[in-house]
Write a structure and sequence with these properties.
single chain; 423 residues; alpha+beta; Helix Hairpins; BirA Bifunctional Protein, domain 2; 3-stranded antiparallel β-sheet; 13 helices
């Protein structure tokens, strides 16, 4: 959520940064300021009436002490009470309207974020490794079917399209990846592992920005006020909601595995075959909570931690900076890590590493005590470390051999228990 004080003090700056995302967003700021002016005027009137009521109440007390008639003043107090009730209701209504607009207004892009309309204008900032030379590469679906790794038909039978059943060595590979990722980030990168619930309250979804804007994409638990997690970002970032952290606690660094549930609303017509676009997929998520002065450096180290996964697995990838027209709702700056998938002849996003600055912290009232003893909003960051479905795709397609087997990278072999998958 944007800081209302910043909007009041620097409206043109806020409009300019939002317009870099989309020009029409500047209208949100005009609406917020108009409501804010009316709300503050109502609150000023309410305070004045409260003062009048207090003054009259004292006079009534004096008259009663002197056993004099106070009926006229008491009528005035009743009239004031009715006016105050109306003003209070008006103020609450305006505050709710203002809050609704702010909850649906995205974060301000940092000034060094490249401006652009869509993903085609995301600049590549670095690459790792080379594309493998594979003659007539098969895609992961053909490989998985031949090796008996996934069973999409039975997944669809029990849950519908967008779900898969991993079988045999396929299930073991998925489990191996989860353990490899958690060990790398906790033992190698210093994150604390947490295991959180897979369902969260509505307030948690609001806190990290999934609600109210993206509710139709989420899986809600009917009549329970709960949602299946779209990513571990939601429960993990909310672990410290409504808390005041001490300086010595920062930065907080958590790693967590969860399945992730997303409806992928609006995906009709897109490629839905195989594991690339799933309604349920596994992910190991990295979350950081830090002081504002450290968040940009923490974004760079977070991205490096996610990159290390692909480096250890020997996979070619590239890192791009999301332009203003492609960045996520809560993002102030995002790097996407895209791994090469030969069978797709394309790069697949396996991690988005994002600095939200204080956007999420304001929504969940997450603060820290600074060196001067003042309570300030933290900065939050997260990144996939990584998303398993597309990493799984890349491993199969990059590891495929002429005899139909798939080589397992050396770093993963101790977890998987073999150096390849074969019939």
């Amino acid at each position: 959520m944007l800081d209302i004080r910043l909007i009041r003090e620097k409206p043109d700056f806020v409009k300019a940064r939002l317009s870099a995302r989309s020009p029409e967003l500047a209208g949100n700021i005009d609406a917020v300021l108009a409501i804010d002016t009316a709300r503050r005027a109502a609150e000023t009137k309410l305070q004045a009436l409260q003062g009048d009521r207090n003054r009259l109440s004292k006079e009534i007390g004096k008259l009663r002490a002197q056993k004099q008639d106070s009926a006229a003043l008491e009528e005035q107090v009743k009239s004031l009470a009715a006016d105050m009730q109306a003003l209070s209701a008006e103020s609450e209504k305006l505050a709710a309207e203002q809050n609704s607009i702010l909850l649906n207004t995205p974060n301000l892009p940092q000034e060094d974020v490249p401006e652009g309309r869509d993903a085609s204008q995301n600049p590549v900032i670095r690459t790792f490794g080379e594309k493998p030379s594979i003659e007539n590469p098969k895609d992961h679906v053909a490989l998985a079917e031949a090796l008996g790794l996934i069973d999409p038909d039975r997944g669809a039978k029990i849950s519908g399209s967008g779900f898969a059943v991993y079988t045999g060595a396929g299930a073991r590979l998925e489990r191996s990846l989860i353990n490899f990722l958690l060990d790398l980030h906790t033992r190698g990168h210093g994150y604390t592992e947490v295991a959180t619930p897979f369902v969260v309250k509505r307030d948690c979804m609001v806190g990290t920005g999934q609600l109210p804007k993206f509710e139709e994409d989420m899986y809600g638990v009917e009549n329970a006020g709960l949602f299946l997690v779209p990513t571990a970002e939601v429960p993990v970032t909310n672990l410290h909601r409504e808390e005041i952290l001490q300086p010595a606690q920062l930065p907080v660094k958590y790693a967590a595995y969860t399945p992730c549930f997303r409806r992928e609303a609006g995906s009709a017509g897109r490629e839905t075959r195989g594991l690339i676009r799933m309604h349920q997929f596994d992910k190991v998520e990295l979350v950081k909570i830090c002081a504002p002065s450290d968040s940009n450096a923490e974004l760079e180290s977070l991205t490096a931690d996610a990159e290390r996964v692909l480096q250890r697995l020997g996979l070619h990838y590239r890192v791009i900076t999301l332009c203003t027209g492609d960045m996520g709702f809560g993002s102030a700056k995002t790097y996407d890590i895209e791994v090469w998938a030969p069978g797709q002849n394309a790069y697949l996003e396996v991690s988005s590493c994002t600095n939200f600055e204080d956007f999420q912290a304001r929504r969940m009232n997450l603060r820290f005590k600074d060196a001067e003893g003042k309570n300030r909003f933290c900065h939050t960051l997260n990144g996939s470390g990584t998303a398993l479905a597309r990493l799984y795709v890349a491993l199969l397609e990059n590891g495929q051999q002429p005899d139909g087997s798939v080589l397992i990278p050396a770093a993963l072999q101790p977890y998987f228990g073999a150096d390849r998958i074969a019939k």
